[in-house]
Amino acid sequence: MNEGEGARSSQRNSLSEALDRADEALRKLEQGQVAELKMGKLTRSAVFAVVVLAWAGLIVHTFFEDNAPQVDSTSVALLAVALIAPFVSRLKALEVGGAKAEWQDAAVSLKEILGVLRQQQDAISQLFGEVTARVTTGADTQSAASMPESRVDLPDDKPRTLRRVLWVDDHPENNTYELESLRQILDVVTAKTNEEAFAVLRETEVDAVISDVNRDFERSGQLPGGVQLLRDLNQDPAYIQLPVLFYTSTGAIQRYGADLEADGALIVTSLFSDLLRMLRQVEEQFLEITARVVATRRGNLRDQPDGTPDVVVELPNGSIIGIEVASWLQRPQMSAFVDRANHLLAAIDRDAITHGVLLARPDVLDDRRRMWAAERKIELASPDRLAQLLDEHART
User: Which fold has domain 298-395?
Assistant: First the structure.
């Protein structure tokens, strides 16, 4: 297993798995208590045998020995054993019963605690899921700061979209909910150190990097790991265009935020919603740059006054194609989908374009939305199919 895979596999334990292990431990404790109670039957059998032997010994010693009948210290001792022994099992039972009652109370308390923890986990997961759904499908209208153009580039017309992100943090367990939510929409690879991060980058195609700031303080005067990571990425031509986002504490933002942004970080935030908004903007720029590069190689780009699609290209045969970029990271609500498609329909009605293309990730559109668009002659295209679609229009 390589370093990147080891880092990923080490993060697969979630809070739900930890609670499952707690449930299993509680079950084993209960089974152990049952076994202890079963052993109590053997104890009672032994006490009964002692009582029988004590009475037998008392009778023999008192009435059947040479000096019989006699009562001496031995007789008294045997009588004491015979009289007290029957109560020993009850005393033991009371002792075990008390322990059992205490254990049952403790078990109930532990189960209640685990139940509350599960409810809290479900509630928090639901909140993160709702935030993710709103931000990644456009229901949340608040926008993050615009992204520096220099950080995202396409040297050729290779289609690009946001598919895989690398998350670097020495304590990924602190981001359990964020990672689980993000993995619902993207492939997420994790690393704990800068060395692991570069090992992943060398072996895996990554579209963006998310990092914390304060880690890897080993020597006096050493830069925090996140700051050093950004500088190392900037110095490597292979990664200088890689989008880098920081998800960190407010203290780290106050101390290092301005310098990180000056060095090219797209965002330095402690809010998961802002992180998602910026990831969506990364996706939007990927798609728009792809559309512009592909369109430029097949026709002439037109200016885009207000009310026109994101990219408008006139092909050699006179067709004017309007390309609307939809940066949805999850399946959008039908209303959001209809609004974007209607933007193209309105441009067609005004004769601003002859054909409308909605550019989006193919995995976020279902058959219902595809059928709705087809009925209105709006074409849906993924980044890797856009060039083929424009070539088809150029031939008609």
Answer: Trna Endonuclease; Chain: A, domain 1 (3.40.1350)
